[in-house]
Amino acid sequence: MMQLTTKEIQDRLSEIKSDKDPFLKECKTDSRKGVQQLVQKWMKKYEQDKILQQQFYSMLSYERSAHNNGFHLIAGIDEVGRGPLAGPVVAAAVILKEECYMPGLNDSKKLSAPMREKFFNLIKENAQAIGIGIVAPEVIDQINIYEATKLAMKNAIKELEIQPNFLLLDAMKLELPISQESIIKGDTKSVSIAASSVIAKVTRDRIMLDIAKQFPEYSFDQHMGYGTKYHLEALQKYGVTVHHRKSFAPVKELL
User: What are the binding residues for a divalent metal cation?
Assistant: First the structure.
C-alpha cells in the first residue's frame, strides 16, 4: 500500500463496487490522512448509492405486481402543466424495458433541471416506447383543464409505437379498454410514472423556452407560465397572448 500514491489509490477505489473488497479494507489501515479522506468519501458515496438503489427497487413494486398478473407492456402516464396560466398541458406515456436500472429517478418536481435533462436521456435509452400528448391553450379553454389533461394522456398513449396492456397513472382514471391502476402520488411511488413525469416536464419546459423567445417581456423561461408575481404584472402591462389560457381567472379578467 505504501508504494501507491494517493492518486493511484483514488483511481483504484473508483473501480470498487463492494464494501467487502480487500483493497478497501487495506486502505482503511493506511495511516495517511489523504487516504483516510478517500476512504470516507468512498464510503459516503457507497451509502448514498445503496439508498438510491433501494429506492429504485421499491418504486418497481407496482410494475412487479402487474408483471406477476401477466402484464408485460406497462406504460406509466403522467402530465405536467395543469396549473399554469399559459402554455399547453403535456402528458407522457413511457413503457420501460423490464431490465432498466435508473437509481435516483423520481418525480420531476423533486429533480433539478440538470438532473431532469440527465434522466430525460437515460429514460430514452431505457424505454421500449415513449409517447407524448400536447393539448394547446385554446383546447383547454374549450373543454376545461381536467378534460384536457385526460385528452393529453390519451394522445400520449396513441403516440406509443408499442401499445400497452396495462397503465399506471398518477391519481387519474382513463376511459380506455386497457387495464389500469391509479396511484395517489404515483410519480414518487412508481418508476414508470416517474419516468413519464420527467419526459412530460422536460418536453413542456422546452416548449415554454421557445415561447419565451417569442415573448421575452413575459419571462416565460423563468416561471414556465405559472402565475408568479412577475407574470401577473406582465399580464397587466402587456396584455394577453395567444399562449394564455383565457378561461383561467387571472387571464379572463383582463379580456
Answer: 78-79, 170
